[in-house]
Design brief:
It contains 8 helices and 13 strands. α2 runs antiparallel to α3 (128-138). 28% of the residues lie in helices and 32% in strands. The chain has helices at 72-84, 106-121, 128-138, 142-146, 183-188, 229-235, 238-248, 271-285; strands spanning 8-26, 32-52, 55-60, 89-95, 151-155, 160-163, 170-176, 212-215, 220-223, 225-226, 253-256, 263-268, 292-297. By secondary structure, the chain is α+β, with helices and mostly antiparallel strands. Strands 1, 2, 3, 4, 5, 6 and 10 form a 7-stranded mixed sheet that branches. Strands 11-12-7-13 form a 4-stranded antiparallel sheet. The longest helix is centred in the middle third of the chain and has 16 residues, at 106-121.
Length: 300
């Protein structure tokens, strides 16, 4: 293979939201068994990968993020070169657009983008099973971002994936209150005292009350639920206020994503009317939060 040194590609790393997340119990290895439904978003970080003769260099637009092995994107490059045995390097420029430590999977998506991007850049054509294994070693959410599907049901630690149909066209408003939340902390503070968890994906939406999304035109009914809300919201009650504001703004569905603290509102229906409702919601949050208010779409 001729040396690709100097060759460069640009890749996107999409955010995700969890439409459903149930924690079933703790595993002997310290991880938790979960059942979740994840949906990718159009909102994405952008990474520029440039092949070099040796070494890994990472430059990130967010000065608060590490640019060494403390960053999942850097570690993904290490894993790729270890797997392939290629004696080359890469310069990575990471432009962050996804809020950090926000429950949107930004770091995991960056790592997946590096894995798949390097596979393309160096022409290694790694088997999907190998990419999945490398991704799993980097983090529980990374396999989802390596997968080509826009939405998936995940079990295990979140790494056993079954592709599902993505949401029909929806506008998504993301409200991040401006403080990070550690996923590790949330899971450590989740009390698993209820025995077998009875929440099911096919559960009657009426039982969920306001946390149910019903898209009548598409005959889709989704039970929006997140076991981790009670932990994160217990520590940060302001998340509950964000959810209430979404409901007052007429969102069709509202939920905290992942371990939080980002809350998303879904606006579904006729495109122009839906856009107006979503834009009005964004204005409602102007001045209410110190963090990010982002309008985006679901990935098809």
């Amino acid at each position: 293979m001729s040396s690709p040194s100097g060759r460069s590609i640009s890749v996107l790393a999409p955010a995700k939201i969890n439409l459903f997340l149930v924690v079933k119990g703790r595993r002997p290895d310290g991880y938790h068994e979960i059942e979740t439904v994840m949906q990718k978003l159009v909102l994405a970080d952008r990474l520029q990968l440039t092949a070099t003769d040796n070494g890994i260099r990472l430059v990130c637009s967010d000065a608060d993020l590490p640019e060494d092995e403390g960053n999942l994107a850097y570690r993904a490059a290490l894993v790729f070169f270890a797997q392939t045995g290629i004696s080359a390097g890469v310069d990575i420029v990471l432009e962050k657009r996804i809020p950090v430590a926000a429950g949107l999977g930004g770091g995991s998506s960056d790592a997946a983008a590096v894995l798949t991007g390097l596979d393309t850049l160096f022409g290694t054509c790694l088997d999907g099973a190998i990419l999945h294994r490398l991704a799993r070693g980097l983090g529980a959410d990374v396999p989802f971002f390596v997968a080509r599907c826009a939405a998936a049901r995940a079990t295990g630690i979140g790494d056993c994936l079954s592709e599902i149909d993505p949401l029909p066209e929806c506008r998504v408003v993301l409200v991040n209150p401006g403080f990070p939340v550690s996923t590790k902390w949330v899971y450590e503070n989740l009390a698993l005292t209820r025995g077998d968890n009875t929440f099911m994906l096919a559960r009657d939406c009426e039982a969920l009350g306001q946390d149910a999304l019903v898209i009548g035109q598409k005959d889709i009914s989704i039970a929006l639920f997140n076991d981790l809300e009670r932990v994160t919201m217990g520590q940060f009650p302001f998340i509950g206020r964000i959810k209430e504001e979404f409901r007052h703004a007429g969102a069709d569905g509202v939920l905290m994503s992942g371990s939080g603290p980002t809350v998303f509102g879904l606006f579904c229906g006729e495109r122009e009317e839906t856009l107006q409702r979503a834009q009005s919601c964004c204005k409602r949050f102007s001045g209410l939060v110190d963090g990010h208010v982002i309008l985006t779409d679901v990935m098809a």
